[in-house]
Specification:
Helix content: 40-55%
Low-confidence stretches: none
Mean pLDDT: 95
Distance between the termini: 38 Å
Radius of gyration: 21 Å
Number of helices: 12
Structural class: alpha/beta
Strand content: 5-15%
Largest sheet: 8 strands, parallel, barrel
Strand order of the largest sheet: 1-2-3-4-5-6-7-8
Number of strands: 10
Length: 312
């Protein structure tokens, strides 16, 4: 799976931001043609995005374009023009406001047609589906199964909050009056469970108070604790905090690798399904949990500082 600890939103209508994004440490950059672009400049933004993809240096980053949603008059042209001109530089297309599996099927079909016409490998470009309303959440499991191109489900909190009538204007924080627990827990867990059931990543949405880095960090920790792979970032100041939160600590990473190494030894050399690693019993369930942490650590570029020493 691609690294997506931080997914930076960049307006396609701003060439300066498109250039700056190439130098930042976000794992993913998505060039936006949707909500951050005014209707009057949609076509201009498309041209900017194509130029940035063709001429920019996106080395080491997952690169996506967020097109307009499938019900708009811009969406099909977004897909055709961007993929025809720069599909070889593109990893994924992000589709917003996905409320039904048919939206994903439509995009999958169109991508295949454009890839064939442009001489690109069919199926290489992935899809990121954004869940942004009550209907989309109810259909999350069906959406997650809608296409083999799907790589992630993404939570879109602002539109979702509006769709259910949540009484707040602050995106990413708990609504006033909700004094205990987490108002988004059910939403996040449903998206996460649907994603994992189909082998997909799950990405949390943005925290709009961009000057409040500690607030961003707090919201990111909640999502990371549940098992989300990353979170949107809207400003460079959020990137370092996001990369840190969605990476395991050095101690946790080392411990996970030790579990994997020790379990391999005990099951193959001593032929035991359960064994002790220090004061901790490890077994097949331990191995599965360790695989998750180790994979996140490797994706974050961590290196081991400890090794397993067989007994005796």
């Amino acid at each position: 799976m691609r690294a997506r600890r931080t997914c930076l939103a960049v307006p396609g209508s701003n060439p300066r931001f498109l250039e700056k994004a190439q130098t930042l440490a976000a794992d993913e950059v998505f060039l936006d043609l949707e909500d951050s672009v005014a209707p009057a400049v949609k076509e201009e933004a498309r041209a900017n995005v194509v130029a940035a993809l063709r001429e920019g240096d996106w080395t080491g980053k997952t690169v996506a374009v967020r097109v307009n949603d499938a019900t708009t008059p811009w969406s099909y042209r977004d897909v055709i023009e961007v993929v025809e001109a720069a599909g070889d530089r593109l990893h994924c297309v992000m589709l917003p406001k996905v409320s039904d599996p048919s939206h994903v099927v439509w995009l999958d079909t169109l991508l295949g047609q454009v890839e064939r016409a442009a001489g690109l490998p069919v199926g290489r470009i992935g899809i990121e589906a954004q869940i942004e309303d009550a209907t989309g959440l109810v259909n999350a499991e069906r959406i997650a199964a809608a296409s083999p191109r799907l790589e992630t489900l993404v939570f879109g909190p602002a539109d979702f909050m509006a769709s259910i009538g949540m009484r707040t204007l602050v995106v990413g924080e708990q609504p006033p009056g909700y004094e205990e627990g987490d108002a988004y827990h059910y939403v996040l867990m449903r998206i996460l469970t649907a994603a994992r059931a189909h082998g997909l990543q799950a990405i949390d949405g943005p925290y709009l108070q961009i000057r409040d880095v500690e607030g961003f960090r707090r919201a990111a920790r909640r999502a990371a604790a549940l098992g989300f792979d990353g979170k949107w970032v809207l400003h460079p100041s959020q990137i370092e905090a996001g990369n840190e939160v969605f990476s395991p600590s050095q101690d946790d990473y080392d411990h996970a690798e030790l579990i994997l190494e020790a379990y391999e030894y005990y099951t193959t050399v001593e032929r035991r399904g359960a064994a002790m690693l220090g004061d901790e019993m490890i077994d097949e369930a331990s191995r599965k949990m360790a695989l998750v942490v180790a994979a996140k650590g490797r994706a974050a570029g961590l290196t081991r500082t400890k090794r397993f020493t067989p007994p005796g």
